[in-house]
Amino acid sequence: MPGAITKLMDLIVSGAALTEVLDTLARTVEKASPGTVCSILLLDEDRLLHGAAPSLPLSFWQPIDGATIGPSVGSCGTAAYTRETVIVTDIASDPLWDDFRELALSAGFRACWSVPIIDGSQRVLGTFALYYREVRAPSQDDLGQMTRWVNMAEVAISRVRFVAALRGAAAQDALTGLMNRTEALRVLTDLTRTATAGTAVLFVDLDQFKFVNDTLGHAAGDQYLTEVARRLTACARDTDAVARIGGDEFLLICPDVTSPEHAQRFAHEIVEVLRQSLPVQGTTVSLSVSVGIEMHLPGTLLRAEDLIANADLAMYAAKRSGRNSVAVYDARLRAEAADRMSLEADLSGALTRGELFCAYQPVVDMSDGRLIGVETLARWTSDARGDVPPTTFIAAAEDNGQIGAVGEFVLRTACAQMAQWRATDPAWADVALAVNVSPRQLADPAFLTLVRQVLDETDVPVHQLWLEITEGAVVPNPSTARTTVTQLREWGVHIAIDDFGTGFSSLAQLRDLPADVLKIDRSFVTDLGHDPAAAGIIQAILTLARTLHLEVTAEGIETDGERQILMALGCRYGQGFLWSHPLRPEQLDRRAGSSWQPATSTRASRPQPERPAPLPSSAITPRRPHPRQAGCPVPGG
């Protein structure tokens, strides 16, 4: 007996299957009691399923596998039902065996003793039975021995299931119930070794998911992730594996995929499903999704870790190409990733090294050239890289979370510069200061505090600040954006929707967003000279703006012909190279009251302003707030 127990425990700890453990137990019983045939059945709700019966003929146990328990269902079905030991000394005459008598007798069995296997929580796990080929009643020793065997069966079943549960928990994501990264790696590793056809690895990332956690709380974020997991599982085939491998990162492992095109079609289906809005804690959330794809073909030597890493790189390529995009990995992405990491590392030190600065582009009244505002534009002249395009470093800052620090620098620098201009030229009191705001800043609960603090420190009147929000910025969480923008506007800050017409905002969102100005994207202006539809689109935007009581500013104007068409359509305010490229602060010092006339050149080169000298410390020294003035003309209003 001690040796048998040791062997059973070794099997359990080693992770052996329950059928193997029970088969070993049954053989041990039969060896210890010659002439005994042991059977162990497992209870699944109200049905008894085959567990182990090494000496029972298949013709006997197979017909009763899955039998429903009841008060007269042989020895085992009755024992499981009544939760009591059932001793049948003569199967030929006992009514409990009426439905199975011929089956047992034809197999040569005359007696059957059965004991329910009950665990510590009083749950019936199954039954332990001993069959004999002669009429036989148990002795007290027999009953005592049976009790010991039953206890061992209970330990075996409970421990094996417990170990299996632990192993399952170790392989499972606790929140969503999907497999976790470790299990996904195991599954993918197995496929790379055994698959005879292509395997697609899809890396799915929820864009701007942090907004949900930051604005609605982590409980809402968990609810969103759980629903995403449900939708992904519904999309997947039975042969696909779905895993959650990070906070908002999911992985699909799809065997038997014949080509990247096949994988792309499936990825686009996923995008369509996940882009649909979800109700979360009383509000509606709609996030975009990026999907990266890597293919594994038989004979390829890539490890599972490499496949996932490549799919991750492809996902970032998809993210950079726009919302709800799909990209397939190729080798150049790895080199681009290395360049991007180097860029992000340089950017992290650019602020402390004084490499970032602000340039300012005039916004004018197109009828007379009057300066009504300046748009603040972040610029980076790197000691190592030279002039870095804003589209490059702003995207990098958005990706790695540095956009908050960059945005704060721009806001502080712009307001300090406006304070300096106001101190030297009273005409600057009538010029609006436009500063771009990123989606992450809008989602930051501290943003409102930052705006108030900077305005108080620099003594810039609230009404003189014009915050430009890219149209797409209001999409991920419209209710939060609306709350933030509403509060800013109540303070007197003017709000503009930048790049209007290029984003995915609905008219309902635009109707509800408390904005003052729409800024027509430069792409529509550029098309005026050669695309008749462009004028119609701009006319529609102007009509929409009038309906919603919004003013309009056109961006990217580079020819006098564009200016004249825009004015004829009813657009009064504009900015672009026709009047000026972005300028250093000192180039604007005495220009507030002057008239800006169109330049003679058109579509000229776009010079990069030189890095200005640092603002004097007095420009950012807090001063006593004064009563806010009113009446500053907001560009477009």
UniProtKB/TrEMBL annotation:
PROSITE patterns: EAL, GGDEF. Residues 197-331 form the GGDEF domain. Residues 340-596 form the EAL domain. It holds the Pfam family GGDEF. Residues 589-637 are annotated as: Disordered. Residues 594-605 have a biased composition (Polar residues). This is GGDEF domain-containing protein.
